[in-house]
Amino acid sequence: MLPVAELHGVHPDELTPRILASTQPLIVRGLVARWPMVRAGLASQQTASAYLRRFYQGMNVVAMLGRPDIDGRFFYNDDLSGFNFFPANVRLDGVLAELEDHRNDEQPPAIYVGSTAIDTCLPGFRTENDVNLHGRDALASIWIGNRTRIAAHYDLPDNLACVAVGRRRFTLFPPEQLENLYIGPLDFTPAGQAISLVDFKHPDFDRFPKFAEAQRHAQVAELGAGDALFIPGMWWHHVEALDRFNVLVNYWWRQSPGYMDTPTTALMHAIMTVRDLPPAQRAAWAELFRHYVFEADDATVAHIPPAARRVLGPLDADATRALRAQLLKRLNR
């Protein structure tokens, strides 16, 4: 495993394109060390919980709850027919109280509030705890829990993950390690994204032999309170919260226009329409995708007058809306 590259001395207002558009993960040490949330967490768990309660307005959150014997690993059950945890729609202050009640347990139940929109749940929090993303339309979320392990997965958007309380370990893999990570179902997942079936704490190399190759390409980031990690979109990442109480704030944004649909939709549609074709037809479609999508450039349509290119020309919001309407009409026939 390799260490993630590090930057030091970066102010929250100084996040340059070198960082926010990197194609490799980057640790930004101490980026948010001056946040009041970070200082509260360094004081004590109770101080950090009290700080969060200042902003809480009473809305319910979705908490993932697991028995102590899952060892913090939110995952499937044994035959992948369900999960080893259950979701609960609860008040955030109740979750904070539960975390405080179990803070001295040697083997506590697994408690995890993930991907909760800060501006909705904790209005005013970002007035005191924020970074400058220089105009990027980012979704800011908060993650709260005890010692937990989140299986390796990818996210489509770029991600700036800021550790506010506790310590976290990220293990990251470039997109081309997909086949070595043994990914589970695409359409039945613990939290929306397909995940690696490998238990990183106890890898079974007899069952998952190619994971050893993935480990040779892995990059590991050990983060403390105040540190941040930039994760490029589509990089696989396994996340461990290492302390009895942990808070993470992250920002997600896409480099593509907001009117573009997620490519996951195209992947699922291709599975439905292309994957099971005879080999020769599948190869022909691979050539079409190469030509019109993966290697498309100005030369692809140079022989067509610009006014006649239609969907082969540049897409804007209106053209995308019209194309989506055509696709929906075909899907609903």
Architecture overview:
The chain has helices at 17-20, 36-43, 45-55, 92-101, 118-121, 125-128, 211-217, 263-273, 279-294, 317-331; strands spanning 2-3, 5-8, 26-29, 60-66, 73-74, 85-91, 110-117, 139-145, 148-153, 158-165, 168-173, 219-223, 228-231, 236-241, 246-253. It has 333 residues and is α+β, with helices and mostly antiparallel strands. The protein folds into 2 domains: 2-253, Sandwich (Jelly Rolls); 263-331, no CATH class. The chain has a 9-stranded mixed beta sheet with strand order 2-3-13-10-15-8-7-4-6. It has a 6-stranded mixed beta sheet with strand order 1-12-11-14-9-5, with helices on one face. Helix 2 (36-43) packs antiparallel against helix 3 and helix 3 (45-55) runs antiparallel to helix 4 (92-101). The protein is globular, with a radius of gyration of 22 Å. The model has no long low-confidence stretch (mean pLDDT 95).
Strand-helix topology:
Layout: E1 2-3, E2 5-8, H1 17-20, E3 26-29, H2 36-43, H3 45-55, E4 60-66, E5 73-74, E6 85-91, H4 92-101, E7 110-117, H5 118-121, H6 125-128, E8 139-145, E9 148-153, E10 158-165, E11 168-173, H7 211-217, E12 219-223, E13 228-231, E14 236-241, E15 246-253, H8 263-273, H9 279-294, H10 317-331
Helix pairs in contact: 2-3, 3-4
